[in-house]
Give the backbone structure.
Amino acid sequence: MPDRSKIEWTDATWNPIRGCSRVSEGCKNCYAEKIAARFSGPGQPYEGLAIMKREPGEESAGDPRWTGEVRLIPELLDQPLRWNRPRKIFVNSMSDLFHEKVPNDWIDRIFAVMALCPHHTFQILTKRPERMRKYFDYHSRDVQVSMAVYRIGLPDAEIQEKKLVPLIEDKMGAGPLPHVWLGVSVEGQRTADERVPILSNTPAAVRFVSYEPAIGPVDWCGFHGLHWVICGGESGPGARPMDPAWARNALYRCHQSGVPFFFKQWGEWLHISQMPAAFTPEELERVSFKTVMNNQGDGVMYFRVGKKRAGRALDGVEYSEFPR
């Protein structure tokens, strides 16, 4: 159910847009791509948006791939309006709101809905911060969003009775919506260097970074204007292990700067230093492992125990901090 998300840092997901495309190494094992490909048959929700791509000579069914097409789902636009209980809502967990093929008109309509739901907190993640920044630079955003009220699908009588158009104009004209958080996903130093500075210069009540999947180290010095950092490893088939040093460094820099830190998961692999004593010798014999070379040239052992067993404790502590 969309209002009962299993994602640790949110309560619900809202997907008025479906479809995406890969932009960096962090997309290699995308869970959304896998789900979309699974439900991409004729008449299914993701038909035409994802496929199982098989390379020449392969005998397997292939790997899931986005087709690059995106689709607006009008009947889901007003979903948050029907949720009375306040929720943290992850917007477009199955897409990217600022994908290059998403027109401003669709984004306007989504922001109109969010403006009408101040009792919720909306969390938006993108790997395309340039498009996000450009969207907020666009002139007369308040006018564009207010006009979008009519395209949500609400009855005209309700729009007039509740004076929704001037309400939206007032909310959008007053600056960033206080209940809308804007974030970027990064997986290592290159994507952090590319995306975080743009986010820092984007108007938002809360700016956050999802450092997941963490597949390389990040030097957080020099990044300013952040209000929250999520950190997590990769799960599922083909998952790559996360070095605890990367998570420790993010934690240290966050607490040094007074930024809340949320450690989401280790993922599929667990570093030997984080292995709990609860594992018996017999269990360890059945668990696959591999040795990975670190930056010092030393071989470090990782055990494939699965996301659930790996847990989300960093050096014995679970970090579940949120912005105020």
Remarks:
- The two ends are 27 Å apart (CA to CA).
- The chain has ten helices and 16 strands.
